[in-house]
Batch of 3 targets.
Target 1
Amino acid sequence: MASGQFWVYRLTAAFRSSEWWAYKLPPLLAIAYGTLMVSGDSPLIGKVLHCLFYLGAVFVGAVYVSIINDLTDMDDDFAAGKRNRMSNIPPAWRWTLLSTCLLAGCLFGYLMWPDTQSLFFYAMAWIAFSLYSIRPFRFKNRGVFGVLCDASGAHLFPSLLMVSGMSHSAGQPADGLWIYSVGVWAFCYGLRGILWHQFADRENDLSAGLNTFATAWSTRRFVPYARAIFATEAAALLVMLCYLSIPVLWVSLLAYAGLAYIRRRFYGQRIILVIARHDGARQILMEDFYQVFFPMALLLSASLTEPMMWIALVVHLLLFPQRAFLAAVDCLRAVKNIRKPS
């Protein structure tokens, strides 16, 4: 690999996009699509650029989070024997990347003005993750405060940004029931995400002497709380689906249930809410619905009444092909196994 290509690889690897691109952005776009449908604004194809604008704003924030997390985790990762991407990048480049993200974030904030509600949610996402990572606050190492910061910065505030931003683009205030149900759903889903990560990394954090939420709780003790978080998330999602009142969404929910069963039945993937109490393959309940079925069902429904939305559906698949491709492959392999003579 040439020297220039090597440095480009290192710099892009520092963004950790493989950890969030296909996992956190599609659910946010689903909220954007759903908000446009709730608003009744049409034609929807005219708002695709607005969706991409807010996606770009969240993208810049996600890159900032990746950089600031690695920068502030360097000492802890070294103590735990974990790899840190920033350790291979010269200090001057580290601060150049960080400064570029901050300037880009300010530019997006400027372009959102005078939509103060969206600007507030956007700023709060940056603030939450700054408090999560940066000393002397370093809420990541302060038990429950780290969990609340991560869930808010990664899911709650970006989801609320999508609702307020798309409502503003439609020229009307955000619908009250919609934004509250989205907020509850996003926060609970965010809680499950960060708690899964912390419990999966619990032994490493204990060895490094970190004070995360998971290091203070046994997995058995937390199980009832995981069920309560998921029950609240599911109730909020049910409100969202009923409020949207789109038949394709219910069909997609059944299709997701079929995929979850296939992966459990044929590939041995245990279904978990938060904690994987056994080694082996597992799937987090509803994750593929949020990342694949939810946004695609909304785009498909819009395409049935507005043919130009097929373009948006194709663009969405081009941007986020991985999870949809894996779902299709798992289903096809299962069908071949069923048809194979015994």
Target 2
Amino acid sequence: MSLARFILGLAALAASGACSTLGGDIATQLNTPGLAGARWGMLVTTMDGREIVSIRPDERFVPASNTKMFTIAAAFEQLKNLDVPDPSAGASIRLEPHEGGGPPDLVIVGGGDAALIDADDCENDCLHTLADMVVENGVTHVQDVIGDDRLFPDQRWAPGWGVDDIQVRAGEPVSALVINSNELTLHISPGPAAGTPALATWRQGDDFFRIENDATTVEGDKESVRIERRPGADTVRVYGTIGVNVKPLTIPIAVEDPALTGAWRIKQLLEQRGVKVDGQIRARHRPMATSDLPDVRTEAPPPLDWAGVEIARLTPPPLIDDIRFTSKQSQNLHAEVLLRRLGRINGAGSIEDGLAVVKAMLVEANANPATYDFLDGSGLSIYNRTTPRMVVAFLRWAAKQNWGAAWRDVMPVGGVDGTLARRFKGTALEGKVFAKTGTLNGVNSLSGFLVAKSGQTLVFSVFANDRPASSESAIGPMDTALLSIAAAN
């Protein structure tokens, strides 16, 4: 054996021993008494693939919102001109002949823009702008007002979403017509004295559901207010207690039929502007068909039939703005709308069409199909699975693509912004972690890139699954472990 090979062999043994020691230290840090029962998976490598820490790297884990990384990466790979406004994605207004004659029906058509806002202080991509356009076109009298979200098939919730999620912000229903992220705002305040009912009111303009208020005011500064919106019901029930000294609560409530709520919202704005509405509000959906399923369809989906004449259209901001918001804030609805927009590239805009685009990208990245399952685009589904090794390999592959730097730039930054704004603050990794968070019941995850003490970039993926409901959060030990890894490299 040559001297050079002998020295290299000693170096490799030393590196292996250091890696083993570090891995043992990290495993100890993760397995804290307060997280007994949690199952950990971790892989940390250099950019060229040298393993630094490996803990169950090939076991399958629920990734939670780490799923969004793949949806957003597919958007960067497949959608062009992300920084250019796309009028075709904006909401529009059409007038259609009303069956039976008389004034026309007015239809608000969703174009797949997730950022449309209905608020008095809105300055860009505003619903009231559409209402103004209607009036400017001389419309003074209509029959029915219809919300149309047929651009995507009617798949408001993905497989594996919980019934508790679909009542609140986490599981807002997905639609081609999105206004205010498909949520209503409920304000709850203590009554004037203990023993009186709590005060529950809608934000102005959000009173689509009735309120059944069973919440009461008690002494002190504690609250245990709960919300119940049963599927199909037109009532939101508020119950529990709120202390007389508690500050007012603001609670987002998911709508159930975005197209119907959209019709209701535009009707209010039109009537405020003097437009007479004789008829009712209605919704127009596109039921799922085999043509929406890429694995079984035998012919292209039929084209949509847009009746009547378009009289108004909004141009939303560039899609990159919403992608950045979706990634930084981990917004589920916006990720799901993005997945369906991907599904419109070669299909009909279904969940399955969007996932086919994501899977095609993963094939290109040489990901083993046995190492992942994705049932949605946001990570809310409890059926999603992946392995730390698959995620790290994908991160390394994506970083080498011509869109890789832009993709990394929309990730939350440790101690700086998004869902990592409060994590790593004041540590050696502040401003040096670029990663996607993930949280579900019993699940914490974090995957991305970090800059180690030496200045080299490391790639990592760490999951905590099966965390008991009574245990502490896994975020603290997770971040401590990454800090230790960065300091040792």
Target 3
Amino acid sequence: MRRSVIAIALPIALLAMPTVQASDFSGIYITGKLGINNSQMSGINNTNSKNSPTYGFEEGYNWDKSGFLVGVDFFLDMNQKTTHTLVGSPDLNYGSNAMGLDAKLGLPITNLMPYVKLGLTRITGMGVYPVTKFKYGVDLHLGLGLEYKLSPTWSAVGELTKATNKADSDKLSNENFTLGITYYLGAP
């Protein structure tokens, strides 16, 4: 009996929830995020790819444009150090910080908003033997995400991003999968 009541009440409750429009995702926002970074550095004896923790934040602004969402955001990802095994050399322990600016395009569907991001990033890194600090040039930053509106001011975000930066013959590739919480400033 109890399961029958839940099976009937849950869909009714979900249908009764108000739908979210693009304007509900617009405005100034701040996001805190945690996740996993997979990084690989080539050009230094073919290091293998390794996972490490990552955390970061974003801040930006979204505009409602005829049911679509157009935005711009600044991001900072701090990818923690991890040991990478080198071929024929001592292991290298390195991590990286990625900072950049993205353009965002989203399509709100009820409380969900899938989006894509495209922007520029600059990666700086830190390591132990043989490299202590490295800087890469500016390169592309790509991302796919899904945002779920929890309330007028809060939402949950899942995001997958990729950035590859080059310095001389070295190339550092970062892929991040993060989960985060977004707060919209000034939302009703």
